[in-house]
Amino acid sequence: MTRSLLYTAALAALLAGCKAGGDNPGLEYAPNMYHSVAYEPLSQITDEDAGTWVNSLDNGRGEYFNSNKYNPYRMNMREPAPYTVKRDPHRWLPYRQGRVSKDSIDIVTANLKNPLDSTAAHLETGKALYYSYCQHCHGAKGEGDGLVAEKYAGVANLKGDSYLNMSEAHVFQVITHGAGLMGAHGSQVSPEDRWKIAMYVKALQKQK
Across residues 165-188, what is the average pLDDT? Predict the structure, then answer.
């Protein structure tokens, strides 16, 4: 009876030690399954014995070792060539001009041209994109009479006199960084699609 009580007390103490609470996370079974090692792309831990004391796997290395032994300098990812700039699938450079005042847009975009040819296919795609991203504010005909404009005054009428002479680059800039009431859409719409929308907006302005 006494021995049973001792076993019961020991088991209770053991289970109590596994209980988490406050700053005590409790005991974990196979901690390497819960806490994965983050792989830094350009700087690795190359010491294969690093973290041996916490490694529960029989793989002959430490838990913190995270290098690729088959790449130069044991990196998981190779460094890009110096001074290189990431380009999109068309090999276009990123558009770096930030948001500017409405009066300065034409100045900063003076040398910016639409790299896409004005084809029927591009215009058709631009129309579909316009209906997805723009018509709820600017309206199907670009006259600033979309459903959003019914709630918020000041949505641009793209067929207004002050907008007829704006370039495709101007439209691209506004879509990218926003202007006036319009917010930036550069993170939602790819550069190629922005140019197609700009192309369609200019075609829409010519429609009666």
Answer: 93
